[in-house]
Amino acid sequence: MIVIEVPPLLRKGEYADVIAIRHPLDSIIKFTNVPWFMGDNMDEAMGYEWGYSGCGPTDFAFNILLHFTDHDEGVARAYAIDFREEYLRTMPKDGGRIKKEDIFDFIERMKVTRPDLLEMVRKHLDLTTPVG
Fold first, then answer.
1. How far apart are CA 4 and CA 119, in angstroms?
2. What is the structure's pLDDT at 6?
3. Residue 58: CB partners within 8 Å, gap ≥ 6?
4. Residue 65 in contact with residue 39, Cβ under 8 Å?
5. With CB atoms 3.0 to 4.6 Å apart as the test, which of 9, 14, 57, 122 could cross-link to 127 if both were Cys?
6. What distances in angstroms separate CA 72 from CA 37, 46, 61, 92, one per listed residue?
7. How distant, in Å, are the alpha carbons of 10, 62, 86, 95, 109 from that of 29?
8. C-alpha Rg value of the chain to the nearest Å
9. Is residue 12 one of the residues assigned to a domain?
10. What residue numbers bound the domain in which 108 lies?
11. Among 8, 73, 13, residue whose Cα is nearest residue 40
12. What is the pTM of this model?
């Protein structure tokens, strides 16, 4: 018998390390503590992915950033690809953990180093007032 400790979903305003786990006997079954809000590339039934640079990891990155910015869609859209490449592309297929401090640091670093990208996305989304 295999026992998998499934992480509880993070609630709005609750911040903890992001956990991703793949079932050891069935690689299609995955668990994470990041709730699904929205995605451009997959639907919720397909689930999040990691370990490569594709649609599933992109949606995972997008939803992580949505959660950690209190649903600031501009930030999530602007920096999801960079987050995917820095944290999710290299995550082992079995899963891993991203420290909450690293996520907050990433967001602040991107706002300082790539404010142009955020401004462009906000204009495109017509999000002229930053959230948070």
1. 42
2. 82
3. 40, 41, 80, 81, 84
4. no
5. 122
6. 12, 24, 13, 28
7. 19, 20, 24, 12, 33
8. 15
9. no
10. 18-125
11. 73
12. 0.88
Q: Are 21 and 32 in contact (CB under 8 A)?
A: yes
Secondary structure (H, E, C), 58-94: HHHHHHHHHHHCCCCHHHHHHHHHHHHHHHHCCCCCC
Q: Is residue 45 part of a domain?
A: yes
DSSP summary character for residue 36: P
Please give the pLDDT value at position 21: 94
Q: Is residue 11 part of a domain?
A: no
Q: For residue range 116-126, what is the model confidence (pLDDT) as tens digits?
A: 999 999 999 87
Asked if the structure places residue 40 within a domain, the reply is yes
pLDDT in tens, 67-94: 999 999 999 999 999 999 999 999 999 9
